[in-house]
Amino acid sequence: FLELKNKMFIVIIDEFSKWPEVIPMTSTTSLNTINVMREYFSRYGICQTFVTDNGPQWTSKEFQTFIKNNCIKHILTPPYHPQSNGAAENMVGIFKDKMKKILDNTPNIIQAYCKFLLDYRNTIHCTTDK
């Protein structure tokens, strides 16, 4: 999760394709996080493995039940070791950096985040060449 201009976002990146999703959230409670994940899985399918930090929404009983019910292997990164989830952490940094620049010209944060995703997704990725 990250906060930008008083708006919360969840960042999800597919480790294989490097496809990023950045989803605005109204809150980061376990229930809201589960609802966002349900919506994400309804679009892209349920993943086999899901890597997160140790935030309370990920370690809650509700989220653990959700993960178990969907047969997902949940890997929690070691505390104070964000590089264990390098792809997502890298995307958070890129998102913050680019959003600051976009927001100079586009004051609406939702329009700005849509512009970021459009630009990023249409740039050839050095790992996938796509």
TrEMBL record:
GO molecular function, a single term: nucleic acid binding
> Would you say which domain of life the source belongs to?
Eukaryota
The UniProt record lists the Integrase catalytic domain at 1-130
Ranges in a coiled coil? none
Against Pfam families, the record matches this protein to: rve
What Gene3D superfamilies does its record include? Ribonuclease H-like superfamily/Ribonuclease H (3.30.420.10)
Give the UniProt record's GO annotations in the biological process aspect. Answer: DNA integration
Q: Which PANTHER family match?
A: PROTEIN CBG26694, PROTEIN NYNRIN-LIKE
Name it: Integrase catalytic domain-containing protein
- Organism, per UniProt? Schizaphis graminum (Green bug aphid)
